[in-house]
Design goal:
The structure is a single chain. The protein has 55 residues and is mainly β. It is elongated. The model has no long low-confidence stretch (mean pLDDT 83). Strand 1 and strand 2 form a beta hairpin. It has one domain. The protein has a two-stranded antiparallel ribbon. It is 0% helix and 16% strand.
């Protein structure tokens, strides 16, 4: 509805650390193939706002 406010608060949450060993496996003008560790999320979200591939 018009005038509604949605608030999302995260109190004192410590973001989990993730390994940061990203390697380029293959690269050409059309595509890049990467290796990233399994626990590293691709995009920020949930508990991960800084420790993601996108950041």
């Amino acid at each position: 509805m018009t005038g509604d406010t949605i608030v999302h608060r995260v109190s004192n949450m410590i973001e989990p650390s993730v390994p940061d060993e990203v390697m380029i496996l293959e690269e050409d003008s059309d595509i890049v193939a990467l290796f990233k560790p399994a626990p590293m999320p691709m995009h920020a979200g949930g508990r991960y706002n800084k420790n993601s591939f996108q950041r």
